[in-house]
Write a structure and sequence with these properties.
It is built from eleven helices and no strands. By secondary structure, the chain is mainly α. It folds into two domains: about 1-130, Tetratricopeptide repeat domain (Serine Threonine Protein Phosphatase 5, Tetratricopeptide repeat, Alpha Horseshoe), CATH 1.25.40.10; about 140-195, Winged helix-like DNA-binding domain superfamily/Winged helix DNA-binding domain (Arc Repressor Mutant, subunit A). Helix 2 (about 20-35) runs antiparallel to helix 3 (about 40-50), helix 3 (about 40-50) packs antiparallel against helix 4 (about 55-70) and helix 9 (about 160-170) crosses helix 10.
């Protein structure tokens, strides 16, 4: 696994330094390992690396594949790196709104992991999309539907999805659906940030 990490880093560093031949050689070595493994982590990692050497629709498809596969794993570092790379690519494609979504996610994940250097890299990219530092005011909750607001407030106060489902007499999947929309509307990556964007009462 460590040799795979090193090869992944080599692909990115060679790509960023304008050495596509070195990046392609590293990708070929990476592919030999990942194809033999066949796991979501391995194939997602390869897709993210291959996306860096691709353009247009091909690059986008590979980044999306990488996020889908890595989303089924527990290795948050790989997901965060892919959100960052995809966000950077989207910004270069001048798709600023879409870029911000992935860059904010990457920044939040890196901050939670204590990877401040990468969090700052994501922040620089966000600034390059002309996004200002966002600190949602209390009226952000006005974007939520009444059901979403109830779910958000209970989650903010520490209730789990199962506890929220029991209190509202709905399924856990319904709560998960509402939570997904709450986080998206409020522009945050995790429920731990709810207390910063919701009113105290």
């Amino acid at each position: 696994m460590y040799s795979t990490w090193a090869t992944v880093e080599l692909v990115e560093s060679a790509t960023r330094s304008g050495a596509p031949e070195d990046a392609a050689d590293a990708l070929e070595r990476l592919s030999e390992t990942t194809r033999a493994s066949g796991s979501d982590w391995a194939l997602g990692t390869e897709a993210a690396a291959r996306a860096q050497l691709s353009e247009g629709e091909s690059a986008e498809r590979l980044y999306r594949e990488a996020l889908e596969r890595l989303g089924r794993t527990r290795i948050r570092w790989s997901r965060a790196r892919t959100h960052l790379l995809y966000g950077e690519w989207l910004r270069r494609e001048r798709r600023r709104v879409e870029a911000r979504e992935h860059l904010r996610t990457a920044q939040e994940m890196f901050r939670q992991m204590g990877a401040e250097a990468f969090a700052e890299r994501a922040e620089r990219e966000l600034l390059a999309t002309r996004e200002t530092a966002r600190r949602r005011a209390i009226d952000s909750s006005g974007e939520l539907t009444p059901h979403q607001l109830r779910v958000a407030l209970m989650a903010r106060d520490g209730a789990s999805n199962q506890e929220i489902a029991a209190r509202l007499s709905v399924s856990r999947k319904t709560v998960e659906y509402h939570m997904h929309n709450v986080l998206r509307k409020l522009g945050i990556a995790s429920r731990e940030r709810l207390d910063r964007v919701l009113p105290p009462d």
